[in-house]
Design a protein that fits this description.
With 616 residues, this protein is α/β, with parallel strands linked by helices. It contains 18 helices and 32 strands. Helix 3 crosses helix 4, helix 3 runs antiparallel to helix 5 and helix 10 runs parallel beside helix 11.
């Protein structure tokens, strides 16, 4: 008689067990190459199941040498993509084919494999799978009431982050260095516990990285070659709060309940953003809203009535499509980081779902600016109407976001009226920022009672005046603002007539376009005097400047700056300001050839000046 064991039976040691109890005396064990390939792949990924299966195959060698049985390896090796399709039954199908070809009994600990085999007319022997019992989390002893996370790595002393939210310290919690054997045992036990316990599951399993969720612990296990040693990082919430414990609680409650909102919860790492998001989720749930979460990995500590969704097929976009069928009232999105995350957030919000997103940002306004370039400007208030900034575990700032049509603050001409996003302090009702398009650029302007160059409006106005004057002047241009509505422009004496134009027509056109009165003077009339040559080295290199190599195409001058997608930047040549732009979704700035800006840029390139990009 022949017996064909599948991967589950080999891992559980059922083949040698059946041989030793005499059930297979004189039989031939036919091992499919598909089983060997699957065990080898699991062992390469550092999985215990792979090593246990290979140990069972080595026991079979000893049993063959003792004359207990005969064994042979047959069949095809799995295709490279078969491992990815193992959950769809590709490898199991190869094993069943071997059993059919050799008229053999199929030995398995996999109930589905057994049922499919019987349906195919095979002789099947099903044995119960081995239950690997693990009592508790092996690193629980490192946690106390103030421990947020524990950090373990081969050859290092255990460390932990302890303290209160906003006052966490990274400290050593053990004097002895961990050994590789100890780390491997802990890692294997944690993964086995997640598989065996109803309180745990494997969130992510990739070569070199496993993320486990067990009770309220989220544990990342990294192994070589992905990491340079075995590392275990375990995180657990140390505080569970209610919305009532935060400032602005009552108006925020009213705001969340009156209609579905788009809210961004922002703050620096460790500030308590996720803790506040959990409080919002449970408040909404307690008020009879259908609440779901989108997390990768899932680590919000919420009640059982709130279903926590991961990334379906590795993509949050697929999760969003599924949730739109479920129709939640609110979805908590933890965390919104990449461009596709913002796009998914916006799509769900525009579909009518209330959205609460968690975003890393060091200022409240930075959270909103991360939408610029990712979401159409006019749609931003429909996507996000509330920004909450968390600092040291408390609500520090709340912004209300609305659109209005007006002349931007600091400009006067009525024909400059345009859609403006107003960002208002929720508590005082005082406008804090305006976001709008100025000369095809998206600008975020902080509002201030001060006049002159120091205000956001002054900075933008100065840049635009300088750009306009440079389009007609040949020499050096310098701009000084004299209040919000007046400026003095200093140019070379030879450029005076070109800038003013016949009968003052050219400068009048510029004043009308910008809504600012401009007085044109020579450099000699500037306080302090001096000529352009004296000032050529005045500007020092900016340490934040990124050197770029513009590409000139038939229609555009293209500047690649992938690291600043969606951000507003200054482009400079030889350290001198050229223009301000918002980096597009594709990570580039495109300037149409033939425009004044493009001509300046091309001229700077021809003169081999260093072109740099600086975040505003």
């Amino acid at each position: 008689m022949n017996v064909v064991p599948d991967t589950s039976a080999v891992i559980d040691g059922r083949v040698s067990e059946r041989i030793e109890d005499g059930s297979y005396a004189g039989w031939t064990v036919v091992v499919p190459e598909a089983v060997v390939g699957e065990l080898e792949a699991q062992a390469n990924e550092g999985l215990d199941t792979g090593w246990e299966g290979l140990a069972e195959l080595q026991r079979l060698v000893d049993l063959v040498e003792d004359g207990e049985i005969e064994a042979e390896y047959v069949g095809e090796r799995p295709r490279p993509d078969a491992g990815d399709a193992a959950g769809e039954g590709e490898i199991d199908a190869l094993i069943r084919d071997v059993a059919a070809d050799h008229d053999a009994v199929l030995l398995t600990s996999d109930y589905v494999q057994a049922e499919v085999g019987r349906a195919k007319g095979l002789q099947v022997e099903y044995v119960e799978p081995v239950v690997r019992q693990v009592d508790d989390l092996p690193i629980r002893e490192y946690f106390d009431d103030e421990t947020l996370s524990v950090h373990l790595k081969t050859g290092t002393r255990p460390k932990a982050k302890r303290g209160r939210i906003g006052e966490l310290t990274y400290q050593r919690i053990g004097e002895e260095e961990t050994t590789e054997e100890q780390m491997r045992e802990w890692a294997d036990t944690i993964e086995a516990l997640a598989r065996a316990s109803p309180d745990g599951f494997i969130e992510l399993a990739e070569p070199g990285m496993t993320i486990v969720q067990y009770q309220d612990f989220r544990i990342a296990v990294a192994r070589p070659p992905f990491a340079d040693g075995i590392e275990i990082t375990a995180v657990r919430p140390i505080v569970k709060t209610e919305l009532e414990e935060y400032s602005h609680a009552e108006p925020l409650k009213k705001r969340l309940l009156e209609r579905q909102r788009g809210m961004l919860i922002s703050g620096s790492p460790g500030a308590g953003k996720s803790t506040f998001a959990q409080a919002v989720a449970e408040f909404l749930d307690s008020n009879d809203y259908a609440v779901k979460t989108m997390e990768k990995p899932r680590d919000l500590d919420v009640g059982p009535d709130i279903t926590q969704y991961g990334a379906l097929g590795g993509e949050m976009a697929k999760t969003a499509d599924s949730l739109l069928l479920v129709r939640p009232d609110y979805t908590i999105y933890d965390e919104v980081r990449k461009t596709e995350d913002f796009e998914v957030f916006a799509d769900m919000r525009l579909a009518g779902v209330g959205m609460v997103g968690v975003v890393h940002a060091t200022r409240a306004i930075d959270a909103l600016q991360r939408l610029v370039g990712r979401v159409e400007l006019g749609m931003i208030p429909q996507v996000v109407d509330t920004v909450v900034f968390i600092e040291d575990g408390q609500v520090d700032t709340v912004y209300d976001v609305q659109t209005t049509v007006k002349v931007p603050e600091g400009l006067t001409a009525e024909d400059l009226a345009r859609p403006v996003i107003q960002v208002t302090d929720f508590e005082t009702g005082r406008p804090e920022y305006e976001i709008y398009t100025f000369n095809r650029q998206v600008v975020t302007v902080p509002l201030s009672d001060e006049d002159g160059d120091d205000t956001g409006v002054g900075r933008i106005a100065k840049q635009e005046i300088e750009r306009e004057i440079r389009s007609v002047a040949q020499g050096h241009v310098e701009v000084q603002l004299k209040g919000q509505n007046n400026a003095v422009v200093y140019v070379d004496e030879d450029d005076i007539s070109y800038v003013i134009g016949k009968g003052g027509g050219r400068i009048s056109d510029i004043e009308e376009r910008l809504g600012i009165d401009i007085d044109v003077r020579t450099h000699d009339e500037r306080p302090g005097g001096g000529n352009a040559a004296d000032r050529s080295g005045a500007e020092l290199a900016d340490p934040d400047a990124n050197v770029v190599q513009p590409e000139i195409t038939s229609r555009h001058v293209v500047i690649r700056v992938d690291e600043f997608v969606g951000e507003t930047v200054e482009v400079r040549a030889g350290g001198e300001y050229l223009f301000t732009a918002t980096v597009g979704r594709g990570g580039d700035i495109q300037v149409s050839r033939g425009s004044a800006i493009a001509e300046e840029l091309e001229d700077a390139i021809d003169r081999r000046q260093e072109i740099t990009v600086v975040p505003v």
